Amino acid sequence: MKSYSIKELLTKQPVGDSVEVNGWVKTFRSNRFIALNDGSTIHNLQCVVDFENADEALLKQVTTGAALKISGTLVESQGKGQTVEIQATAIFVHGTADPETYPIQPKKHSLEFLREKAHLRVRTNTFSAVMRVRSTLSFAIHSYFQQNGFYYMHAPIITGSDAEGAGEMFRVSTLDAKKPPVDENGEVDFTEDFFGKETNLTVSGQLEAETYAMALGKVYTFGPTFRAENSNTSRHLAEFWMIEPEVAFNDLAANMDLAEDFIKWIIQYVLDHCKDDLEFLEGRLSDEEKTKPQNERSEMTLLEKLKFVVENNFKRVSYTEAIDILRNSNPNKKKKFQYLIEEWGADLQSEHERYLVEKHFKCPVILFDYPANIKAFYMRLNEDGKTVRAMDVLFPGIGEIVGGSQREERLDVLQQKIKALDIDEKELWWYLDLRRFGTAVHSGFGLGFERMVQFVTGMGNIRDVIPYPRTPQNAEF
Amino acid sequence: MKSYSIKELLTKQPVGDSVEVNGWVKTFRSNRFIALNDGSTIHNLQCVVDFENADEALLKQVTTGAALKISGTLVESQGKGQTVEIQATAIFVHGTADPETYPIQPKKHSLEFLREKAHLRVRTNTFSAVMRVRSTLSFAIHSYFQQNGFYYMHAPIITGSDAEGAGEMFRVSTLDAKKPPVDENGEVDFTEDFFGKETNLTVSGQLEAETYAMALGKVYTFGPTFRAENSNTSRHLAEFWMIEPEVAFNDLAANMDLAEDFIKWIIQYVLDHCKDDLEFLEGRLSDEEKTKPQNERSEMTLLEKLKFVVENNFKRVSYTEAIDILRNSNPNKKKKFQYLIEEWGADLQSEHERYLVEKHFKCPVILFDYPANIKAFYMRLNEDGKTVRAMDVLFPGIGEIVGGSQREERLDVLQQKIKALDIDEKELWWYLDLRRFGTAVHSGFGLGFERMVQFVTGMGNIRDVIPYPRTPQNAEF
Predict the structure, then answer these.
(1) Closest residue of B to A41, CA-based?
(2) Which segments constitute the Aminoacyl-transfer RNA synthetases class-II family profile domain (chains A, B) (predicted)?
(3) The pLDDT of residue B398 is above 90
């Protein structure tokens, strides 16, 4: 007897064959119909029990969450909702799930409740769909880059380099937490630590990716990054995954082309490969939308939003143009923005980005050529001396989903910027070496993976798109 | 004029076309022949300079390591060593590389020297080949699992769970390093820390992967893991990448089948996709072997070793059989082993594993059914009450490359083991929940990614197969 996954059975439909499946009980109706799921697909397999000849004690064990092996014949289904079903001839109970204590019962649980049960929530339709899409999206990302001649580069997670300054960092140490060794000045003596210096968790693999791009040409990272920011929002995690492509000889225009092509390709890949899960998630989102006041509901369904991104050009707008648009916008004139846009140089807030994307252009937007003083030191200074070749991709509902730039390839300009920021040049000796030896125009960007999973699945809280979210006060599991 | 990567040019060979390439100078001979490399392939592109009409000052900038854009016509090559070359019509220097200071000159550098220049070593043939193979091997791993119905699961990196006890851990903290807050007992008050408790870097994603396997059926992790062990060897890193598949309803035999099929498939994938790099690395290894005494040289070349693994069955041997073989072996009888094998229950050392693989069976070996007391608490106890369903895959030259087991699915047995080990059950409440609700037979294993890259590339030191190795006293870059 051949063992199948439910996805295989529903795809191949070997009607008439004796088959075996393993899975968990979703529901058991009328002492007769077991809806079995094994995680391979959102769909359950209906297993019909010959209850008149079945062992009553065994049937008592068939409750939601129990793990079963069911053998029988695959037949065309007479009932609605499925094309095939198993006429069960034997049931083996791997493990029971006491209905009194098993938390994942066949009813609606709040996302907040399920967050407390993160080890079990993936047994629900919503989370299993999200996590399958997350997996497929990961593979889409790797596939895109590998097909296009990029090499995957594992940037270091523990870093002794604290020069990027992209945010608060987590210290990594094996020193005694209570009584660390101290040096002659009474400061903690990190030369005694595991790495012989103070080390932190990385906030970005970009600088290291640049070293590889300047040898392999086209590279990308895909790894965890960390921010020790005390942000308890639906958009922030202390531990999240980031994708950072970096390409030698690409200027900012080529970088924008890459970002747009990449994003469209991976979303199309998910549309092609996760149809069932996306349909389920579309229904979930539209149910959620119905609980909102009419004027706050999205005009598009989940699939419409995804297709819209794939099918439309991203609007490319310089920061300077965007400031003009915002300054003359209704919410600015009527003082509806929390932060009014008065002059060139202002840092854009989420409300401004959303206005541009959702109200003004009504499509994804790439803003470029930002003022130098609101962007990072490594970005290429334009000939105007006041803007840098930075770009942000802005998405409806999400805001900034990609941030990137052409990098400053000129040694002297980079050294001046580092000096102006009071960064010790010695900290970046290896980064500056790239400008000393065979320097060239190069560009890259970072995509926050969980933000993209949120966009693709329609989940509103970033904690619900990663298996075990790490946030302030929470590192359970 | 179309811009090409060198890999594309050498593959498509659009002879007669005007083309443009960017890359770095490997060598410049006779003021005429530039060997250009852009990292897309191990092969250089020969660019022939019309030196009689060239700007002399420009040609002076064409030194090893300089970044150039070269335009010209692709023609069939008259010279040896290449089929096509560019007749250069224009050369643009992106960036120079002063021969007096650029460390990567066209001569043999020691691996030790290059480790100090980890940001530049990837510009050498050896390291660019290793890192391209590493990238392809990563993608092979994702491809294998995705094609076989596995879902990629990102296990958490920061963990509040310290129950696995697989080794020394790195503490992650934002508390003041010098004066951490203390509680009323004078101990460090981790409730004040970022996550409200003491947290560490993960040593394994297995326990979390199990939670996902018990919902999605077949999952795998591929992420960084950490060991704060003070091991300064050619086999150990403090930060390394690990792959951990976990499969619901798989017993130990199915787990061994999976490991063998997986390993063979990914090696075959690399053989199919990295031919040029592997041939280069084979040559490098055989040069290295020639510096060794005759009796220490490997009998097989790199490619022979890889094909051998793909084409032969892994020998499956129980621990008990292995002990018999070792006890009666010549090195044991002649007291050549450092640790003599006297009785059942002995923990096998690297010398014993290598004897079994390299001398006795002369093929990869899977040892299984180890004594319970030398293996982890979560492994399935056999009916004999003294062995567990553990397995290790042993490779020539490398030793243990995979460690795995069928997991203990019985709540009561697992609870007893946890108690015997003095682990607080509360620490593992969620792990035990898997045995309370819908438990089932399940299995998985861990593959140390860098060990596999070492095997595939023939590199002897694990520091040379990861971009920025983290080892005691070393977290540079």
Answers:
(1) B216
(2) 131-467
(3) no
